[in-house]
Write a structure and sequence with these properties.
23% helix; 6 strands; alpha/beta
Length: 121
């Protein structure tokens, strides 16, 4: 993996609530390394708003860092119950691979019950 990609957190989601999320593949063209990241924020009315925000931050890492949103969905984060449910899809980006998203989320929240479903919007 590249040093620059190592600096990017795998998961950045709101601490509680129901909100949209996206799965992004970030590539360092110099090292030819790619990593998936999960981003989800209640402040974003659309999945594209999340991507725009993340893209702005990634641009600051240099011209070799490129990103592609590979899908989205929703997250229900219940901090009181130590539970996260990943589900649904994005109308603009399509359905994310929730299994990939859940694997990343489980690493950040190891004490949580993290589940996913293809149901719902």
């Amino acid at each position: 993996m590249s040093e620059i990609l190592d600096q990017i957190p795998d998961v950045d989601i709101d601490a509680n609530g129901v909100f949209k999320y996206i799965l992004i593949n970030v590539t360092d063209k110099k090292s030819k390394s790619t990593k998936p990241i999960v981003r989800g924020y209640a402040r974003a009315p659309y999945h594209a708003d999340i991507y725009d925000e993340v893209e702005e931050k990634l641009k600051k890492l240099g011209p070799n860092i490129k990103s592609k949103c590979v899908g989205g969905g929703r997250i229900k984060h219940d901090a009181d119950e130590n539970a996260i449910n990943v589900y649904g899809y994005s109308q603009g980006f399509g359905k994310a691979d929730h299994e990939v998203s859940v694997d990343l989320i489980k690493k950040k929240y190891p004490s949580y019950e993290v589940t996913w479903s293809n149901e719902g919007y």
